[in-house]
Amino acid sequence: MQHPAEHSPLGKTSEYVSSYTPSLLFPISRTAKWAELGLSAETLPYRGVDIWNCYELSWLTPAGKPVVAIGEFSIPADSPNIIESKSFKLYLNSLNQSAFDSREALRTVLEKDLSSAAGAPVGVRLRSLDEVAEEGIGRLPGRCIDELDIAVDGYEQPRPELLRCDAGRIVEEQLYSHLLKSNCPVTGQPDWGTLVVDYQGPALDPASLLAYLVSFRQHQDFHEQCVERIFLDLQRLLQPQALSVYARYVRRGGLDINPYRSLAEVAPDNRRLVRQ
């Protein structure tokens, strides 16, 4: 079956368009991937957001002077569409030689165009380099499980059967791993990320979680769907009182994508990690 992104600019040679062109944005419906996971727009068991950070954002003042900023775009996890990442990058590039009356004028244009593509309101922040530098590098809460000694014999598809928990011991903890890797479903290129699990429920066996995450290593899917699959597999196993799963992916083409999924409303810490 052809992937919906096959018709997007992803994996194809693209001309550099340097004047404002919102038609470059390529939305992809979430419906097919939700259906693969047994979900629909009406039955989503999570709340959340996909936070995109753009480090290559520039435009012109009315006097022709270039301006640079870091963009933060928040797309609701229940929006009808995701935005294909290369088209997002091409669209942002089209601002480079375009003049805007003010930073707020540009923010308003971005909000309108991205909300139209996503099919839901998209939050937009334009931040100065000094502001972002002041925040520094984020440090993750909880325990890193990457040094656990595990044996791995499969990398082709996610293996939820590897996950184990102790139903007789209820805990509240945060676990994370920097070893998440999957591949783009169109180009086959690797996507690298850090995965965080924050939960309250039956104690999850950390070694089984690490083996499960490594099983994604050759799996082909977009960032958002990988996180949703992990969330659902953990929810089925643990039946937790609280559960949040999020990934901080390494940037590509000046963009990083950070999907958050949770049983509760989320207020993500969007400070970049050291690999971002």
From TrEMBL:
- Give every NADPH-dependent 7-cyano-7-deazaguanine reductase N-terminal domain span: 16-126
Write down the EC number: 1.7.1.13
- Reactions performed catalytically: 7-aminomethyl-7-carbaguanine + 2 NADP(+) = 7-cyano-7-carbaguanine + 2 NADPH + 3 H(+)
Question: Where do the catalytic residues lie?
Answer: 184 (thioimide intermediate), 191 (proton donor)
Which principal EC class is assigned to this enzyme? oxidoreductase
InterPro entries noted in UniProt: GTP-CH-I_C/QueF, NADPH_dep_7-cyano-7-deazaG_red, QueF, QueF_N, QueF_type2
Gene Ontology annotations of biological process type: tRNA queuosine(34) biosynthetic process
- Assembly and interactions? Homodimer.
Q: What is this protein called?
A: NADPH-dependent 7-cyano-7-deazaguanine reductase
